[in-house]
Amino acid sequence: MFLRSAVMSLAVLIASQGVKADDEVSAVDAKRAEYFYVGLDYSPAFSKIRDFSIKDSNEKSRALYPYLDNGDVIKLESNRFDWHALNPRIRFQDNMLIAMEGSVGYGVGNARVEIEVGYERFKIRGTGSRLNREDSEADAIYLLAKELAYDIATMQPDRLASALAEVSGKDIANFAKTIEVLYPGIDKKVCVTKKSEQEGYGEYYYITQTEESGKTVYNNHVSLCGGRGGNGQGGNEPQHLQHFVRWALEDGIRNWPTSTSENWTVVTYQPLPNDNAEAVAKDLINELTSEEKVIVSGLLAKTIEGVGVVEIRSLSSTSVTVNVCSDISVSNAVVPYICVGPGLSFIGVVDGHTIAKFAYRLKAGLSYKLSKEVTAFTGGFYHHVVGDGVYEDLPLRHLADDISLAEHAKDTAIASFDMSYVGGEFGVRLAF
Q1: Which of 27, 84, 221, 315 has its CA 20 to 30 A from that of 51?
Q2: Which domain holds residue 324?
Q3: pLDDT in tens, 336-393
């Protein structure tokens, strides 16, 4: 609406003044067979960026989380991201301020060829509750979480169990010890042993001891997370995650992801593949509150998987096109024009990192001769970046509290989106 209103207003003004145009200027201009010119214009643009997505280059990231802006100093720590806002839609603002274009060209009669250089910058919008407030540096920061955190957020115990089964016992032990120290309430909800049929609770041990036909077991030793022992005497209180890690996993060297049992001829208990991974996964999803799951997601990210942080302040396009234009003579003062041109757009996704892509531009408008050398023009344009829409090798940052053993040295991200924009141009050309 803004572009259409501006064009119509200027067209009416030009038409009203065209009758008064100096015939001598028009006659002199008609005799000029060829000329060079330079142009400068203001070119506000409306963003048409669609289907924006971003992931790490090794394609292990499964979810995107925005930074949780509380007005404090920005810190790249796991608890400073909004773990409730899974995969927010990333959108970009229109560009009304930093929008300039310049051109140099050569004209013969009604035909022109020009090289045009333009710059557009589309700042990122806030997400969710941040949409209707002033821009913040926090709007640009997103965390790329991997499988474990994603599976908890989406409550998929089977997927979580499969992912946990691929994690080393040492990493599981490290994760559990962090929970024990920082969140003892969560520790007491995971891998809680059950009471045996005789008496007492199961007690964690490096092996599960069960009853054999004709033989009595005198304890409730269990190596299964949340398991029940044999027919012997157990503890008076249930054990939980810290005991499971310390005595069943022996700090990660045994029983992960599958428990073990006594190697007797006939037993009433046989371990199932990945049974400990499955039991831990079910407890993390079924036994914890929503807030506790958020805490666990952050802990998994910083103690086991490692995560990447990407800053997307804006998408910028520095375009260079070669336009072929035609001026359509309809009066002595007002001249419609149309242009089409291929070229390149240098797209900036992350600050300091640009990627060249092929592009093309279409534009049309009205020119008005102010003097023999000076022409004012107004019009509209459409700019589209062609190709696969994939932007690789974008740099990633990492959490300040990341204590995982994951290798980060070569971590980069891949963004994918379709980029085009439409806008207006309001400027002057100086012929010589």
Answers
A1: 84
A2: 2-144+309-431
A3: 999 999 999 999 998 778 999 999 999 999 999 999 899 999 999 999 999 889 999 9
